[in-house]
Each structure stands twice: as C-alpha cells, then as structure tokens.
Specification:
Length: 149
C-alpha cells in the first residue's frame, strides 16, 4: 500500500516515476531515491568531464561527420572546416579545448600523414574488468558509401 507523501516528496516521487519509471511508495524510499540519484548525477558529471571521455565522444562525432568521405581530400576538407570553426571560436569551454586539441592531432597524424598506420587485420580491443571489449574502429567497412557502377 502506498503511503501518503509530503508535498516535497510527492514532487520527487513524480519525478522518479516520470524519468526512471520507479514508484516511490513511502518517505524513506523517496529519500533513498533522492540520495542515489545525487550520487548518480555526481558520477555522471565527473565521467562526462574527463579528458578521455571528451576525446572519445569527439572521435565518435568525427566518425559520423566524415562518414560519407570517399577520398582523402574530402576527409581533409571536413577536418579543415571543423578546424576553422574551432580556431574562430573565442572563449572556448574546457570541452571545446580538448576537442580542438584532438582535431589538431587528427590533422597532424592523418591529414598531414605524420601518424602511424594501424595494422589492419588486428582487432581494436580494450580491457574492461579483465574482459576484452571489441570496437569496430573509425571507418567501419559496413558504414562506407557503396560505389555505384
């Protein structure tokens, strides 16, 4: 049976019901929900602001942004377009600074061909809790535009 909640806790309960589909049935569980939601939010804030997460998210954006590129020249043009936008921006946020540095690395390593070449045939994997996680990589062959003849 659902207890009568205070007005403040009812607002919290309504929020959890709408967002998380969790029904708060009494005051103590409303407090538990509020406290765990605060921990969740704090960890999420910290996670999203870490340099490597910003870099990875930017690479995922760049992958989508350059998905239709069929030649190195097209890729260079897309990268240059983004670089020019970033250079023109004043008062960059901490995230934008990290993204700009990542794009400059892409420009140097890829467009100027100063970086090493990945050995195809090897999987792109990462360890997570002693398990291998496999990634498709930047250019997934299934995502490439199909040549029309």
């Amino acid at each position: 049976m659902k207890d009568k909640l205070s007005t403040k806790q009812q607002v919290t309960a309504d929020f959890f019901k709408a967002v998380d589909e969790i029904e708060i049935i009494n005051e103590p569980m409303a407090e538990v929900g509020g406290r765990v939601h605060k921990v969740y939010r704090d960890v999420l804030d910290e996670y999203l602001s870490t340099k490597v997460v910003v870099q990875f998210n930017f690479l995922e954006f760049l992958k989508t942004y350059t998905k239709q590129c069929a030649t190195p020249i097209e890729f260079k043009e897309k990268v240059m377009e983004l670089l020019n936008q970033m250079k023109a921006k004043k008062d960059k946020t901490p995230t934008e600074i990290i993204e700009h540095k990542m794009l400059k690395r892409i420009y140097n390593d890829v467009v100027l061909a100063k970086g090493q070449i990945f050995e195809y045939g090897k999987d792109i994997t990462a360890k997570y809790d002693n398990e291998d996680i496999k990634f498709l990589g930047f250019f997934n062959p299934e995502d490439k535009p199909q040549a029309t003849s």
